[in-house]
Amino acid sequence: MINSSISSLGGQNRELIKPGAYTSIGSLPGSDPAEAAKLIVGELPLLPHLPELPERGPGADMIGRTASLLVDIPVELVSTGWRLAGHPGRDVARARDFLAWDLDALEAAAAAHTGALKLQVVGPWTLAASLELQSGHRVVSDHGAARDLAESLAEGLRLHLAEVARRLPAAQLVVQFDEPSLPAVLSGTLPTASGWGTVRAVERSVVRDTLTALLAVVPEAGRVVHCCAKDVPIPLLREAGADAISFDITLDRGAAFNDSLGEAVDAGTRLWLGVLPATDSAVAFTHGRRRIEKLWNELGFPREQLAAAVVPTPTCGLAGATPGYARRVMATLRDIGTWLLEDPDE
To answer: How far is CA 142 from CA 28, 29, 139, 148, 202, in A?
Structure first.
């Protein structure tokens, strides 16, 4: 059964993430956990996060890391990616070692941190779309296997949250669920493992209920769903219990999408807006600010509500960027966060 509460996480509430906060998606360039943790805690003081360093190889990638959290469902690395296995092996052991090293580094760097702190896990549907059954088919193609995977992930996430809370008891934990494959799962456009066909669409209610159960593991106000695809299912994510929705603001989605965003903001859902490119580019404070201003004006909400409703981020993880660019992105996000808090009448 999925445990939907973690008493050790402390009193989280709607003020968990402070107005003017900004953050990164998760992945960074490089391979040194200590250096990455110091960078994140120093540059993202209001909303630091556990760094992901996929440059280290298999097991440090987002799928391998999340798969290593699974309880009683071992995985292994094969030529086509991660696959369910008969018993735990060295691939999972390596992934767990990477995670432990990263937690050690974060514990040292964030020992004095008392505010919100973000963890990232792959959501149940992207994980089911990425892992293979032993037959070679995607887990998402088997309803029972996908259900078991989600329940295992929920239990693993509960244990992960408890471990981080033990290491950093003053931090208030936020969880970002990465779901880039969610639109393809809903629409039936996800390619089969062979590439010759597509996986049948999963019913909307099944997708929603599975997400609801997993998000319930995280205390209210700390549930964020990140989807960098174009067709972000805003109403479904709200129904599932997301407190915030993270997406790439640079993609053109049209009026219907903005209507969904407006309804979300009106209902108190926070928007995490990916405003800066995730790979090396010319970044400027005005570039990100104008994107936020344009969207906010289209939505029609007062300027004074902006800082409490929006968290600026890069469009995706920064693993493909150079270290210098990653630092510039964080510095620019800081400037955008300061701008969010400015009085528009001054």
So the answer is: 33, 35, 6, 10, 10
CA distance 194 to 1: 33
Give the whole-angstrom CA distance, residue 75 versus residue 162: 23
CB of 110 closer than 8 Å to CB of 41: yes
**Spatial separation of the C-alpha atoms in residues 10 and 332, rounded to whole Å:** 32
Which residue is listed with tokens 């779901």?
Answer: 179
Q: Given the structure tokens 């998760």, which residue do they identify?
A: 26
Q: Are 106 and 50 in contact (CB under 8 A)?
A: yes
Residue spans of beta strands (DSSP E) within 31-179: 75-78, 81-84, 116-122, 172-178
CB atoms within 10 A of CB 252: 6
Report pLDDT for 2.
37
Each residue's pLDDT tens digit, 204-253? 999 999 999 999 999 999 999 999 999 999 999 999 999 999 999 999 88
Give pLDDT, residue 343. 73
Task: Report how far residue 1's alpha carbon sits from residue 154's, in angstroms, rounded to the nearest whole number.
Answer: 9
Model confidence at 99, pLDDT cuts 50, 70, 90, reads very high
Helices (H), 241-302: 255-266, 285-299
Contacts of 237 (CB under 8 A, 6+ apart): 211, 225, 227, 245
Q: Are 244 and 273 in contact (CB under 8 A)?
A: no
Whole-model pTM above 0.90? yes
Distance CA 137, CA 314 (A): 33
Rounded CA separation 277/174 (Å): 23
- Give the Cα-Cα-Cα angle 220, 307, 161 (nearest 5 degrees): 30
